[in-house]
Design brief:
homodimer; about 230 residues; alpha/beta; Rossmann fold; 7 helices; globular
């Protein structure tokens, strides 16, 4: 792989996307990170995304404004809706929860595609995960494959017919524990990352939403303390 | 078809999308129009989209802000790049022109999908056209079909597996003349629409860009005067 091949990496500032960024770097891509101010409940994760981009020497980091809260329909963008809290991971992922943001990954991947095309990148990395996840439809491999097929028809590359646009999902078949193990091997500083859907003042994790509980279990399975809780 | 079935209609304010809106109305959908302030060179078309939404009794009209000019790469969003001007339609559509906005339809359709999902609509209308067009990759039927397949995996409807999300492209196989003929039969007031890529002050068409030339030919082929030029 050429050392200069460009890749766009979707970076929320959470554990998964941070690991995904580390993987893209380890594969010698020139990484361009993209984050979204989409009307989420808090912006702490955007600060984390900036820090991570710096730490990993991203060639550029952009925060794109796209207000998905104007459409409503999710506890992550509608302050009127409560983020569900639980005592353990039991039942997470069995149904689509209220934290699902309609078509969010499709919107994010589409904007990544637009950006990739303008910088002549054909590789996009997204840290979706189909195992320890919240049950979102747009985290499944069949969805990603369909997006990739569409992307190869949507763009100039598609017309030229070389099918070169690739959506990389290095985490999709990993458990949260395996993701963390991989990230630790690649020196990801998880102390910088924030996974919580509903953090307290200052970005302190609630420790009871789906994202916090899955993360906690992942660190426990590795027998490691989560540095963001120290 | 139920009289109350909701549809999302992408509405730029141009001739094609106005006709598409008229067709959706004629099929008895409750139409919700969506326009985009995406960093285009001018906003005249957004005023036209508002007028058309009112004229056709849209149940709602939203203008979504998504700044594609931050990515650059197109004469439609970058004031530094010139919109090409010609004397006739010869050669239009043979190559992808500089007015192509990277992945624009993918971004617009993705946002329509997000909106459709929140209002429980499963029908999206887009006025793309694969014949008299400027040669954009994301105006072709194979692209639209790939988007539809992806949309049916991206959403709650996709998980429930009913494949109900439909992207309607009633103009895709029509010539510009046929589109205009159809619109006139449905009482579209083309005097309200604006197709020009690069209008003069007040929204006066330049009459020399691809969009103006294709439109002019379409009216001429119908033996009708373009009311927007009167």
């Amino acid at each position: 792989m050429s050392k200069d091949k460009k890749a766009v990496v979707l970076l929320s500032g959470g554990l998964d996307s941070a690991t995904c960024l580390a993987i893209a770097k380890s594969e010698h891509y020139e990484v361009h990170t993209l984050s979204f101010r989409y009307g989420q409940r808090h912006s702490y994760e955007l600060d984390r995304a900036s820090n991570l981009s710096r730490e990993f020497g991203a060639a550029s980091h952009r925060i794109v404004d796209i207000d998905l809260s104007q459409f409503g329909g999710s506890a992550l963008t509608d302050p009127e809706l409560e983020v569900p809290k639980h005592d353990d991971v039991q039942g997470i992922g069995e149904t689509i929860p209220i934290t699902y943001v309609p078509a969010r990954n499709t919107v994010f991947l589409s904007l990544s595609l637009a950006f990739a095309e303008t910088i002549s990148a054909t590789d996009i990395f997204i840290g979706v995960n189909a195992l320890d996840y919240s049950g979102y439809p747009d985290c499944r491999l069949e969805y990603i494959k369909a997006f990739e097929a569409m992307a190869n028809l949507a763009t100039k590359a598609g017309v030229e017919g070389d099918g070169s646009m690739r959506i990389h999902t290095p985490l999709i078949q990993l458990t949260k524990a395996q993701i963390i193990s991989k990230g630790l091997a690649l020196d990801v500083d998880y102390g910088v990352t924030l996974s919580c859907y509903d953090p307290e003042e200052g970005g302190v994790p609630c420790r009871r939403c789906d994202a916090c509980l899955l993360r906690e279990k992942g660190f426990a399975d590795n027998g490691v303390l989560d540095p963001s809780l120290c």
